[in-house]
Specification:
By secondary structure, the protein is an alpha+beta fold. The protein has a single domain, classed as outer membrane lipoprotein receptor (LolB), chain A. It is built from eleven helices and eleven strands. A hairpin with a 2-residue loop joins strand 4 and strand 5. The longest helix is centred in the N-terminal third of the chain and has 22 residues.
C-alpha cells in the first residue's frame, strides 16, 4: 500500500513538472541583451492583438508653481474587425480627476473614432487606414522602435514581480524614435496634446529606457521611458509660444512685471515617466463600441486628433 502511494506521489510530481514546463517557452532566455531584445521584438511583432496598461507620472514646476499629473490607462486591441478600446483616468491632485473613453473601429464600410469626455460623446469619421495605423501603433511599433537599437541595451539586474522572474534591460533610444514612442505609449490620447507637432531638432538628448523581460515566456512584461529631458524642452517651447501670443498686447517690460516673461515662467521637469505593462498578446476579451457612442452624430472634425487634442473645448 505504501509502495503504491509512493508511486502515485512520484507520478503526480512528474505531472506537475510537465505542467510547469508546458507553461514556459520552448526557447530559453538568450545570453546577451541584444539577443533578448531581438527575440522579444520578433514575438511582439507577430502579435495580432494585445491588452495593456499605460501610465504617465509627471512632476514639474512652472514659474515656481508645482504641478503633478498621474495618468493610468487601459488599452485593448483586436483584429477582424480592427478595434481599439482605451480608458483613461487622469489625476492632477487636490481631488481633481477626469475619466475618458476612446474607441476606434471598423464598422462595415465605415470607420469611426469615438471619445467620451465629461459624459459627452464625440464621433468623427476616419479611414480604414487610420484604424489600422492606430492598431499597428500599439502592436507593431514597439518592436520596430526597439529592434534597430538592441545593441544599445545592457542587462542591469534580475527581479521578481507577481511570481515572475524578470530580466531588466537598460539603454537609451534616440530622439528619432519619438513618433513611434508617441504611438505605442498612447501619449496623445493620455495627455491631450499633439506631440507630433513638437520640433525635436534643437533637443540633443535621448530617451533613457528600461525593459522588463519575462524569463519564462521571453516576452516584454513592461517598459518605462524617461521623457523628462525632452518634456522640459517641449514645455519651454510651449510657454514661449504662449508668451509670444501676448506680445502684441503687452510690452516685454509689462510681461516681465506680470511674471509672464519667458525667464520668469521657467519650466523644470523633475519627472516625466511613461510606461506600458503588457497583460496579454492573444486571447484578448472581446468588446463592443457602446450604442450611445455609435448613435452619436458625427462631428465636423476633419481629423481623428481633433477628438483627443481638443477634448477640453
Amino acid at each position: 500500500m505504501k509502495k503504491r502511494a509512493a508511486t502515485g506521489m512520484v507520478f503526480l510530481c512528474i505531472l506537475a513538472m510537465a505542467g510547469l514546463a508546458a507553461c514556459r517557452s520552448d526557447e530559453q532566455l538568450p545570453g546577451t541583451a541584444e539577443e533578448i531584445i531581438n527575440t522579444v521584438c520578433s514575438r511582439l511583432g507577430r502579435a495580432g492583438e494585445l491588452d495593456a496598461d499605460l501610465s504617465v507620472d509627471m512632476d514639474m514646476d512652472v514659474g515656481g508653481s508645482p504641478l503633478k499629473l498621474s495618468v493610468n490607462s487601459r488599452v485593448s486591441v483586436m483584429k477582424n474587425p480592427n478595434k481599439v478600446q482605451m480608458s483613461v483616468h487622469s489625476d492632477v491632485g487636490d481631488g481633481q480627476a477626469a475619466e475618458s473613453l476612446i474607441y476606434m473601429a471598423d464598422e462595415g464600410d465605415f470607420h469611426y473614432a469615438y471619445a467620451k469626455w465629461n459624459d459627452l460623446w464625440r464621433k468623427v469619421e476616419i479611414t480604414e487606414e487610420d484604424v489600422a495605423d492606430r492598431l499597428a501603433g500599439f502592436v507593431k511599433v514597439p518592436s520596430e522602435e526597439l529592434a534597430p537599437h538592441a545593441g544599445a541595451f545592457t542587462i542591469a539586474r534580475t527581479e521578481e514581480e507577481e511570481g515572475r522572474e524578470l530580466t531588466v534591460l537598460t539603454g537609451e533610444l534616440p530622439k528619432e524614435c519619438l513618433p513611434g514612442l508617441i504611438k505605442c505609449l498612447g501619449l496623445t490620447e493620455q495627455m491631450g496634446m499633439d506631440f507630433g507637432k513638437i520640433d525635436v531638432g534643437e533637443w540633443g538628448g535621448a530617451f533613457p529606457t528600461t525593459i522588463w523581460v519575462d524569463n519564462g515566456t521571453v516576452t516584454v512584461h513592461r517598459m518605462s521611458v524617461d521623457f523628462s529631458s525632452f518634456m522640459e524642452t517641449a514645455y519651454r517651447e510651449l510657454m514661449v509660444a504662449v508668451v509670444d501670443s501676448y506680445k502684441g498686447e503687452m510690452s516685454d517690460e509689462a510681461l516681465n512685471k506680470q511674471g509672464m516673461g519667458v525667464d520668469e515662467l521657467g519650466v523644470r521637469v523633475g519627472r516625466f515617466d511613461v510606461g506600458v505593462r503588457y497583460r496579454a498578446f492573444r486571447g484578448v476579451e472581446g468588446f463592443e463600441v457602446p450604442a450611445e457612442a455609435v448613435n452619436t452624430e458625427a462631428s465636423d472634425a476633419t481629423e481623428m486628433l481633433d477628438l483627443f487634442v481638443n477634448r477640453w473645448d
